[in-house]
């Protein structure tokens, strides 16, 4: 009887949620409260595997179709209306969540130059929603990858392994190398680390450049190594259990995910990149997810032997000392933003979902405090910045900035870097 009651409550909650679309759901406080309690979007439909089965010589279009089929089966919101601009034109009258989070490619009538985009942990290809079309308009063929365990529900991160991630990254790099004369890779966070590790093992001769955006190098949590052991304990499955109302990025965080990314970061800090590969790194010095000093230490180590250009676009309010072999561009002033966050780098200020006036406001600092969370979500006057302890103590309410007022400057430098090397 209890199971039937819980099932009924879950069903009623889901029906209520589908009265929304992807832009109104995150603003409904009652959905947030129920989402925390029930965790409906924390768990995927138990239909099929949590990762695409890759086959030998699989065309990228075939991979995309397989990823979409997986999302349709496992993501409970796959068909939820989502009236936002898509990177790829959609023929249907009404766009849905799946149209935004599935992998895609933007192709010209040539195979001259391509760019592979790899997202980070808990994220989806939606993070490239603006920059992918921008690069396409400059003449690049662009494709995105969906990492296993993503695009469905946070609990699916407990059903994949590092091997699954690396297998997909390896496939995407090899396939892109075969499909285009020259290509570059842009990796965000964990995607940046996974790409670096794969390139370290096998570097295609036509890979001409690598861009690392907020690369995953070392967590601020010095106990992250314990996650792989704690995850084995019963009832110890989650670090964060949020409402997961953001359709494009998981808000809940399973211990298994912490264990997976810890292993990637350990390898990343020990990695060596090809010394003749041009690299551009983009990051914030106050990143609350990744230890920025660890990233600077890694770049400094690479610089000692690197022969190709090694550049850094750093969002930092204060000057820093840096190895002179690293070409530094420092951004110290941002419109309406205290400092830059891990998650906001690739999103323009006017973005309809993550932008300053967008549908989604990141109030994750308060998810354990219902009143503070609601105050953050509904505040007419809000402070945007990275959610580190200094900002949280000085500003209430504080929303983690999910956009970059300097997006145009970032794209300009990235475009110049890619156009100079990928030809």
Q: Kindly state the percentage of residues in helix.
A: 25-40%
C-alpha end-to-end distance: 66 Å
Structural domains: how many: 1
Helix tally?
Answer: 13
Name the CATH superfamily classification: Alpha/Beta hydrolase fold, catalytic domain
**Spatial strand order of the main sheet:** 1-3-2-4-5-8-9-10
Shape: globular
Q: Element order, helices and strands?
A: HHHHEEHEHEHEHEEHEHEEHEHEH
Annotated CATH architecture: 3-Layer(aba) Sandwich
CATH topology: Rossmann fold
- What does the main sheet amount to? 8 strands, mixed
Give the integer mean of the pLDDT values.
92
| Radius of gyration using CA atoms only | 21 Å
Provide the β-strand percentage band: 5-15%
**Would you identify the regions where 5 or more consecutive residues have pLDDT less than 50?**
1-15
Which structural class should the secondary elements be placed in?
Answer: alpha/beta
CATH class placement? Alpha Beta
Q: How many strand units?
A: 12
Please provide a brief summary of the model.
With 423 residues, this protein is an alpha/beta fold.
Write the layout of secondary structure elements.
Elements lengths: L1 H16 L11 H10 L21 H15 L23 H4 L3 E2 L6 E6 L12 H7 L3 E5 L16 H18 L2 E7 L1 H12 L5 E7 L13 H4 L7 E3 L12 E2 H15 L9 E6 L7 H12 L6 E6 L11 E5 L38 H9 L4 E3 L3 H6 L3 E3 L6 H15 L2
Parallel strand pairs: 2-3, 2-4, 4-5, 5-8, 8-9, 9-10, 11-12
Antiparallel strand pairs: 1-3, 6-7
């Amino acid at each position: 009887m209890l199971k039937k009651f819980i099932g009924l409550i879950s069903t009623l909650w889901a029906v209520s949620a589908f009265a929304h679309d992807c832009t109104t759901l995150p603003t409904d406080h009652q959905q947030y409260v129920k989402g925390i309690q029930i965790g409906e979007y924390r768990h995927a439909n138990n239909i099929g595997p949590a990762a695409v089965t890759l086959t030998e010589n699989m065309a990228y279009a075939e991979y995309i179709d397989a990823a979409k089929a997986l999302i349709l089966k496992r993501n409970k919101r796959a068909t939820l209306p989502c009236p936002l601009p898509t990177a790829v034109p959609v023929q249907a009258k009404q766009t849905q969540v799946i149209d935004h989070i599935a992998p895609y490619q933007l192709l010209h009538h040539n195979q001259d130059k391509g760019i592979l985009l790899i997202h980070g942990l808990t994220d989806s290809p939606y993070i490239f929603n603006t920059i992918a079309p921008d690069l396409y308009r400059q003449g690049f063929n662009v494709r995105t990858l969906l990492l296993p365990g993503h695009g469905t529900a946070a609990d699916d991160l407990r059903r994949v392994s590092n091997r699954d991630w690396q297998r997909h990254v390896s496939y995407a790099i090899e396939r892109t190398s075969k499909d285009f004369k020259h290509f570059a890779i842009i990796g965000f966070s964990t995607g940046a680390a996974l790409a670096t590790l794969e390139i370290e093992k096998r570097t295609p001769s036509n890979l001409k450049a690598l861009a690392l955006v907020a690369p995953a190098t070392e967590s601020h949590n010095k106990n992250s190594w314990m996650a792989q052991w704690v995850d084995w304990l019963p009832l110890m499955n989650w670090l964060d259990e949020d409402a997961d109302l953001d359709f494009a990025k998981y808000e809940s965080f399973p211990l298994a995910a912490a264990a997976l990314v810890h292993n990637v970061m350990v390898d990343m800090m020990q990695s060596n990149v090809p010394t003749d590969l041009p690299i551009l790194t983009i990051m914030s010095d106050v990143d609350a997810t990744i230890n920025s000093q660890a990233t600077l230490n890694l770049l400094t180590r690479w610089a000692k032997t690197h022969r190709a250009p090694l550049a850094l676009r750093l969002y930092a309010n204060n000057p820093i000392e840096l190895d002179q072999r690293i070409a530094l561009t420092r951004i110290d002033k941002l419109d309406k933003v205290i400092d830059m966050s891990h998650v906001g780098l690739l999103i323009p200020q006017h973005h309809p979902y993550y932008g300053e006036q967008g549908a989604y406001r990141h109030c994750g600092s308060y998810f354990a405090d219902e009143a503070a969370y609601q105050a953050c979500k509904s505040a007419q006057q809000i402070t945007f910045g990275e959610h580190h302890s200094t900002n949280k103590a000085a500003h209430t309410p504080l929303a983690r900035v999910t956009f970059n007022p300097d997006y145009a400057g970032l794209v300009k430098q990235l475009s110049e870097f890619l156009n100079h090397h990928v030809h």
